[in-house]
Design goal:
The structure holds four protein chains of four kinds. By secondary structure, chain A is mainly alpha-helical. Chain A has helices spanning about 5-20, 25, 30-55, 95-120, 130-150, 155-170, 180-210, 215-220, 220-225, 240-255, 265, 270-280, 285-295, 295-300, 300-325, 330-350, 360-390, 410-420, 430-445, 445-470, 490-505, 510-515, 525-550, 555-560, 565-570, 575-620, 630-650; strands at about 70-80, 85-95, 235, 235-240. Chain C has a single domain (about 5-90), classed as Orthogonal Bundle (Helix Hairpins). Classes of the chains: A mainly alpha, B mainly alpha, C mainly alpha, D mainly alpha. Chains in contact: A-B, A-C, A-D, B-C.
Chain lengths: ~650, ~170, ~100, ~500
């Protein structure tokens, strides 16, 4: 079995995008949804078979003679020629991380397709307005995301970075009549666009010195790729450090690293399944994926790597702090996502080059592992949140409380998700988080402690959310509303599947398959780290149980005690206000308006002044045309005399 | 100048031309102005005669003095009440006119005297064209034949007649 | 020598044309100028090329054209007079529009 | 005559025949007028496609001449003025672009009122000029067609425009005429120095071959020609005709003007100014690079605060056309290819924008975005079209804008010159600003609640409006999806000019 059919992975979603978008309106809503879901199921199947072939097959060239797992170039099609050397190709590159990402994306995308059949309908099962559009956009997003992970070169990655940005924009703004959704979609797009700008500049610098976009060419000999810019510095740093830092900023935008994280919480204005798919599991890890892709380069450029580390570690703590106080469950989950992605970033940054020391490349593996498990349990949490929101028609946890009795399946699924993210064995999160902590301690105990604290906070805020939704006090059913209940099978089935995966994913021998250098990495549990991290998580859970399991006034007491801190965290440390200030007050008012004014009054004014001068000059000359023959004759005669005189003078002299 | 008589005639004609032209443009009464014009034209005819262009002199007298001046007189009669003076000239305009006239005259005189040749050139003995020769030249199509301008002039005159009739016709 | 009266006559014509307000007087000045030019033609012919008749014919045609032109001009003047009841050029400036 | 066996001449003859056909129509016979116009436009499109096929065939057959399909007919021997025809890859794609936009423009002005016949007459006269400009390689002929394309603009805006149309028409015409005055000087200067041995010529190829323009003259003539064409290419600070002109012009005229006419500027800058005077180009490029760099950012920032749809688009045109000139001045093959792609892309998507704006304006009778909102619910087709145009403009991969901009940026960065690289990075920032203003408009105009109750009764696009916009949308998508097809046509056309420049400038020919 060869990889020729892998093109279908991109072709099917893209075709579905066009098909559902153009023909869907004519087809009826239910059918559109079903067709979209089935097509996604086919894609899922193909992705699984590709991954299976890649990891377990042996005859497709993916295992080199030395037993090293290497990448396979399934397709490479010249798309756009820049120069003889710089050619943008579109293709499919299969290697451990892209194969893993194929599984993640197709699984979650399929489950979200399925879940949306119920979620995007009203209580009587009638699909909402724009149902076809929704499925069409989902297909577009899936296409873009799959294209991103199989990118053969950095420019293809950039192209699909843009594409996922746009599809995310379209999906966040799905409810386009709501101002909040428009605003959020705009914000998401512009912030990620700003990051993409840096990405682009980074690509330009990198490709200028290395003369290639290809990952394979770059990875084949990262040292020589970097040494082509040897000695070139810009403002004191080597150009490669600049390039890689810029590329990291691009990834940071998509992955919502501080300070470019502000779009992600707002992006929760989109439909919840979309949040599960894009803003929890797939698109937001694109930045991590990007850094992982270029990992061999980053390892060589420790300056850039340190920036990644600092940003990642800071974001992890920062977002976790905010997540502790949010009242909107989706926002809280969003900050949790930011924190977890920062975890993966940090893991990448603390990783040393594979083969260096005992634990070389551990961070890389751990990061990818966490990416995988996190995608599963975060999608689970979001889909649960979706089910809850669908049931109570609100995002605020004050409208929920005590739902455990009404929605038992959802409640258990959510609990599994919480346990997984908190890192309690044997759930998936424990294993990946444990590897990350080990890698951090390897780097420096400082980072290990730091990340352990974040892990504790994670456990705390996740259980806070859980208790506030499902316990705390009895649920009050408002008059005229149905009592909340578990949803139909299309919505509960994805929850169950994801819950099962979250339970067992940790036992996948990840190190055997997904490593930085293709050689299996044998991990062993680092007991001190594992035990301490579980303890910290248990402390967090215990604290949350104490504060939020039953209704009591402890939280409000604490709130009034640390009022300043609480308010600041609740308002996300005023980052949004800062951005608002910069964009509106500075850029809009102090740059755009003056420029527009300058254009209309100075530049245009100059042109109008010229015109006015011409007009007044002609008015002045107009007086000469008096209509009096005699004055005309006089002018004529004087002119003639002058000419004659001049001629005479010339002739005589 | 071959003879004193000629010289005297020339002097009289020249003085008449100068004097009457000045009078023609300065007099207050328009009818007098026309009369002075008549005298100027007659004096011009004298000069033509003196240069042996008898035919031209005759035409000058017949067409100009006889035709055009009469036309002027009629026009004046039609448009002026008798005895009414022209209004005095505004002084700046007068000086403007004088200036322009003198400037023009000065330039021309400059040109004239710088060549100096014509100031006192001898009148060559004319070959004495007779009227027959003029007539045949006028209707000749050879070199120095003037049939084409002659015809053009006749068409022009015709056009003038028609134009004059159309313009002056009472609507 | 013959050109001197012609020159003065031309100057008078210019002066008259520019200063007079009566249209007929302007026409008279115009005739003066034409006449002086005629003299010039004839003189140049007589003194430079006595064997040919070019200048004379030019003067001849000029006289003819002057006659025609005067006739038309006077027709126009009379017409203007009929419409505007005046022959004063400084008051008839509407033709510029 | 021999010249009639050349396909190129028909690009002038067909519009002229259409003119004649239109002249035969009755004033009120709208059906006949439309038929003739559609026939003319379709014939042009077929011709253009045929030309592309012929071009590919010739190139495929190994004809590597700089210009192919050349023909020449002397029409004024004393000055050696010829009707010299010839195309290279750049002109071929520009002709293709023009044909598409003329086609879409005819449908966009389907319901032209009043005086439809006269409108189409001027419209086709304008297209005659545009096509004539692109097919000719003789400076005089080029200039003549250039003027032919400019003059109808005045009447088209002055008669069929809206708003402050007299002012705009006057301003546009005068500024462009001012530009062509410079151009005239430049062309005459080039002509009088076109040859060292006294055989003066107007033929671009021959002038380039002779390479006889003295360096001090080049320094004088280059700014003349570049500014002359730059005015039409909306180069800062000579761009102010563009917002007013576009705002007042009728839909099809805006389309043709922004879509094609502004490209004449970029094309001329490359074909005349840089190609013929490489020395001065290399010496003076920094001035114009700075100006065009300002254009890019400045236009984008200006567009952010406008409230009139057409003004927004006009300023975005300033930004995008600035990018064209910017890339041309980068003096390498890739950036220049990017410039042509950008011309194509900008031409199509601006035409699309103006068509949609015209259609929206025709319904709502306002172009102020503050008075509109939620139009997506009322006219979904136009809304989707607007979003697609917007996404193309802000550079979504798969649509044309991305391809063009990326080629420009990557190409520009491939310069050894630090000044150019820094400018490139500054220019790159426009992609963010573009996103800001595009999304602002899309958000205010299409999304949200319906602002004006009267708008609820409005209808979506008619069949001809759909045809017009779909043509453009499909073209935008085709360029975006299969850019290499166009790159292959365009790329090699820049070899001569880059070679000429490489004598004076460390060009990276890669």
């Amino acid at each position: 079995m060869s990889f020729d059919f892998s093109i279908l992975v991109l072709a099917i979603p893209f075709f579905m995008f066009l098909f559902l978008g153009l023909v869907g309106v004519k087809m009826g809503k239910k059918i559109t949804g079903v067709v979209g879901t089935i097509a996604m199921g086919v894609t899922l199947f193909i992705c699984y078979s590709i991954a299976f072939t890649y990891f377990f097959g042996t005859d497709q060239g993916q295992i080199s003679a030395e037993g090293v797992r290497q990448s396979v170039l399934a397709y490479d099609w010249n798309w756009l020629t820049f120069t003889d050397k710089l050619v943008v190709k579109l293709g499919i590159l299969l290697d451990p991380i892209s194969a893993m990402m194929l599984i993640v994306i197709s699984t979650i995308s399929f489950l979200v397709h399925l879940f949306s059949l119920g979620y995007m309908s009203d209580e009587y099962g009638k699909p909402e307005k724009g149902f076809q559009r929704y499925y069409s956009f989902l297909a577009l997003f899936t296409f873009s995301m799959l294209g991103l992970v199989v990118a053969t070169n950095i420019f293809q990655m950039f192209i699909f970075f843009e594409m996922v940005g746009v599809s995310s924009y379209l999906l966040i703004g799905f409810y386009y009549t709501s101002p909040a959704a428009i605003h959020a979609s705009k914000k998401a797009f512009i912030v990620t666009r700003l990051a993409d700008l840096f990405f682009l500049v980074g690509i330009m610098i990198l490709s200028y010195y290395t003369d290639t976009f290809d990952f394979n060419a770059l990875m084949a000999s990262p040292e020589s790729a970097l040494s082509s810019a040897h000695g070139q510095t810009f403002m004191g740093c080597s150009v490669m450090a600049w390039a890689l830092t810029f590329i990291f900023i691009g990834g940071a935008g998509k992955s919502a690293m501080y300070p470019l994280h502000i779009w992600l919480p707002d992006a929760m204005e989109g439909p919840t399944p979309v949040s599960a798919l894009i803003h929890a599991a797939t698109m937001v890890v694109a930045g991590v994926f990007l850094v992982a892709r270029l990992f061999p380069l980053y390892v060589l450029e420790q300056g850039s790597m340190n920036i990644v580390l600092v940003v990642g570690a800071f974001t992890a703590l920062y977002a976790a702090a905010i997540a502790c106080v949010q009242s909107d469950i989706k926002r809280a989950l969003a900050f949790s996502t930011i924190s977890q992605i920062a975890y993966m970033m940090t893991a990448l940054a603390v990783s040393s080059a594979p083969g260096v020391g005992e634990e070389g490349g551990l961070g890389y593996m751990a990061s990818m592992f966490h990416l995988f498990t996190h995608a599963m349990f975060k999608a689970l949490l979001f889909l649960c949140a979706g089910a809850i929101i669908h049931a109570v028609h609100s995002n605020e946890n004050s409208h929920m409380h005590g739902l455990h009795k009404f929605m038992p399946i959802t409640s258990i699924a959510f609990l599994i998700g919480c346990l997984a993210i908190a890192g309690i064995p044997p759930f998936a999160g424990f294993f990946s988080k444990d590897e990350i902590l080990v890698a951090c301690y390897e780097k420096s105990p400082l980072w290990g402690v730091w990340m352990a604290i974040v892990a504790g906070m994670t456990a705390f805020y996740m259980f806070r959310i859980y208790y506030l939704i499902f316990h705390w006090k009895k649920h009050e059913v408002k008059e005229g509303h149905h009592a909340p209940h578990d949803m139909q099978w299309t919505m509960t089935l994805p929850l169950i599947i994801l819950a099962v995966i979250s339970c067992v994913a940790g036992f996948i021998p990840f190190g055997k398959y997904v490593t930085a250098d293709g050689q299996a990495l044998h991990t062993h549990t680092n007991w001190p780290v594992a035990i301490s991290s579980v303890c910290i998580a248990l402390v967090g859970i215990g604290l949350a149980t104490k504060m939020y399991f039953k209704e009591n006034d402890l939280p409000s007491k604490l709130k009034s005690k640390f009022n300043g801190l609480w308010t600041a965290a609740y308002n996300r440390f005023y980052m949004d206000e800062l951005y608002q200030f910069i964009t509106h007050k500075v850029i809009f008012q102090k740059v755009c308006k003056p420029i527009a004014w300058f254009d209309r009054h100075v530049i245009d004014g100059t042109m109008n002044l010229l015109a006015d001068m011409t007009t007044s000059a002609s008015f002045a000359i107009r007086k000469m045309q008096s209509g009096s023959i005699q004055s005309y004759v006089l002018y004529y005669f004087l002119g003639a005399i002058m000419l004659a005189a001049v001629t005479m003078v010339i002739v005589l002299i | 100048m071959d003879s004193v008589g000629n010289l005297i005639i020339y002097a009289i004609a020249a003085i008449a031309i100068i004097a009457f032209s000045i009078l023609a443009v300065t007099t207050k009464k328009i009818l007098r102005s026309a009369t002075y014009l008549l005298f100027t034209l007659l004096a011009t005819a004298v000069i033509y005669f003196q240069m042996d262009y008898e035919f031209l002199g005759a035409v000058q007298i017949a067409v100009y003095a006889g035709g055009i001046v009469v036309l002027f007189v009629f026009a004046i009669m039609l448009t002026h009440k008798p005895g009414k003076d022209a209004e005095p000239l505004s002084s700046h305009k007068k000086w403007l006119g004088v200036g322009a006239a003198f400037a023009g005259a000065a330039v021309c005189a400059g040109a004239l005297f710088s060549y100096g040749k014509f100031c006192c050139a001898k009148l060559l003995p004319g070959s004495g064209f007779d009227i027959k020769e003029i007539g045949s030249a006028l209707l000749d199509t050879d070199k120095f034949g003037y049939l084409l301008p002659f015809e053009a002039i006749s068409i022009l005159l015709l056009a003038c007649i028609i134009g004059g009739v159309v313009i002056a016709r009472r609507r | 020598m013959y050109l001197i009266p012609s020159l003065i006559m031309f100057g008078c014509g210019v002066f008259g044309f520019i200063t007079r307000k009566n249209m007929i007087a302007i026409l008279i000045s115009l005739e003066l100028m034409l006449n002086s030019v005629d003299i010039n033609f004839v003189v140049f012919n007589r003194f430079l090329y006595p064997d040919q008749l070019n200048g004379m014919f030019f003067a001849l045609f000029a006289i003819a054209i002057a006659a025609a032109e005067t006739a038309v001009a006077i027709a126009i003047i009379i017409n203007v007079y009929r419409v505007a009841k005046k022959v004063d050029i400084s008051e008839i400036t509407k033709l510029k529009f | 005559m021999e010249i009639f066996s050349n396909i190129l001449i028909y690009f002038v003859i067909v519009p002229l025949l259409t003119l004649a056909g239109l002249a035969l129509c009755r004033n009120k016979g709208i059906g006949a007028i439309r038929t003739v116009a559609v026939m003319g436009a379709s014939a042009l499109m077929i011709l253009a496609i045929t030309l592309v096929v012929m071009f590919l065939k010739e190139r495929g057959a190994g004809n590597n001449a700089e210009m192919i399909l050349t023909a020449s007919w002397t029409w004024y021997a004393p000055l050696n003025v010829k009707l010299a025809l010839g195309v290279d890859g750049v002109s071929v794609v520009m002709i293709l672009l023009s044909a598409f936009i003329v086609f879409a423009g005819v449908f966009a002005s389907w319901k032209m009122d009043p005086l439809p016949k006269q409108f189409f007459l001027w419209f086709f006269l304008l297209s005659t000029g545009v096509f004539g400009f692109f097919i000719s390689i003789d400076l005089f002929t080029m200039f003549m067609f250039y003027e032919v394309a400019l003059i109808p603009m005045y009447l088209l805006i002055g008669v069929w425009g809206s708003g402050n149309k007299n002012y705009s028409a006057m301003k546009l015409t005068l500024m462009l005429m001012g530009g062509s005055a410079f151009l005239m000087l430049g062309i005459l200067g080039i002509y009088f120095h076109s040859s060292a041995d006294g055989n003066l010529t107007m033929n671009v190829l021959e002038i380039a071959q002779n390479n006889a323009i003295p360096e001090n003259w080049q320094l004088f003539l280059f700014p003349m020609t570049f500014v002359g064409f730059g005015v039409l290419g909306a180069m800062f600070p000579f761009h102010t005709w563009s917002p007013d002109g576009h705002a007042s012009a009728p839909t099809a005229v805006s389309m043709l003007h922004a879509g094609v006419l502004m490209k004449l500027g970029g094309y001329g800058c490359f074909r005349v100014a840089i190609y013929l005077m490489p020395f001065a180009a290399s010496q003076l490029s920094w001035i114009f690079l700075t100006l065009t760099g300002i254009s890019i950012v400045y236009g984008a920032f200006s567009a952010c605060v406008q409230t009139d749809l057409k003004y927004i688009n006009a300023y975005s045109s300033v930004s995008h056309c600035g990018m064209v000139l910017f890339a041309i001045l980068m003096f390498n093959q890739t950036a220049m290819t990017g410039a042509v792609l950008q011309m194509l892309s900008h031409g199509l998507m601006t035409a699309l924008f103006f068509a949609l704006i015209g259609m929206i304006y025709g319904r709502t009778h306002t172009r102020d975005i503050r008075d509109m909102g939620g139009l997506m619910q009322i006219m979904p087709f136009l809304g989707v079209g607007y979003v697609i145009a917007g996404l193309a403009s802000l550079g979504l991969p798969g649509l044309s804008g991305f391809v063009a901009e990326m080629t420009i940026f990557v190409g520009s960065y491939e310069n050894a010159d630090v000044f150019r690289r820094v400018l490139t990075i500054l220019g790159t920032s426009s992609i963010v600003i573009t996103a800001v203003y595009i999304l602002r408009v899309v958000g205010k105009l299409l999304f949200g609640a319906v602002q004006n109750e009267h708008h609820k009764q409005l209808t979506d696009a008619n069949w001809f409006e759909r045809l017009s916009t779909t043509t453009l949308m499909v073209s935008v998508a085709i360029i975006g999806c299969f850019p290499n097809f166009f790159v292959d046509i365009i790329r090699d056309s820049f070899v001569p000019v880059v070679n000429a420049l490489s004598d004076f400038f460390p060009v990276v020919i890669r």
